[in-house]
Amino acid sequence: MAMTEQQNMMRRLQVQSFAIDDIKLYLDTHPDDVNALAYYHKYCHLQQQTMEQYVERFGPLNIMQVESDSRWTWVDTPWPWEGTV
């Protein structure tokens, strides 16, 4: 079964999060590795871009991304853990 665009973006966010978590563990023991640090920054940037695209297209992934100037919009779309249709 083919993944929807939303599922594909969520998968990319998961992969990017894993890469960031993995490199953070490495950097804990190799803090002077400039290549690892560049890799960390690259994936942080990619994840931020993907997150912004996801939120723009499908709504917030976490409570900090809710626009709430005049209305609590967190309830307007399915919550991230509810999955997609």
Please, could you describe this protein's structure?
- The protein has 85 residues and is mainly alpha-helical.
- The chain has a domain at 8-54.
- It contains two helices and no strands.
- α1 (5-29) packs antiparallel against α2 (34-58).
- The longest helix is centred in the first third of the chain and has 25 residues, at 5-29.
- The two termini are 13 Å apart.
- The relative contact order is 0.14.
Mean pLDDT: 89
Distance between the termini: 13 Å
The beta-strand count equals 0
Order of helices and strands: HH
Q: What is the overall silhouette?
A: elongated
Structural class of the helices, strands and pairings? mainly alpha
Report the sheet-strand fraction.
Answer: under 5%
Unreliable stretches: none
Characterize the main sheet: none
Radius of gyration in whole Å, from Cα?
Answer: 16 Å
Number of helices: 2
Query: Roughly what percent helix?
Result: 55-70%
Structure characteristics:
elongated, mainly alpha, 0% strand, 2 helices, 85 residues, single chain
Write the SSE topology.
Elements: H1 5-29, H2 34-58
Helix pairs in contact: 1-2
Condensed summary:
The protein has helices spanning 5-29, 34-58. The protein is mostly helical. The model has no long low-confidence stretch (mean pLDDT 89).
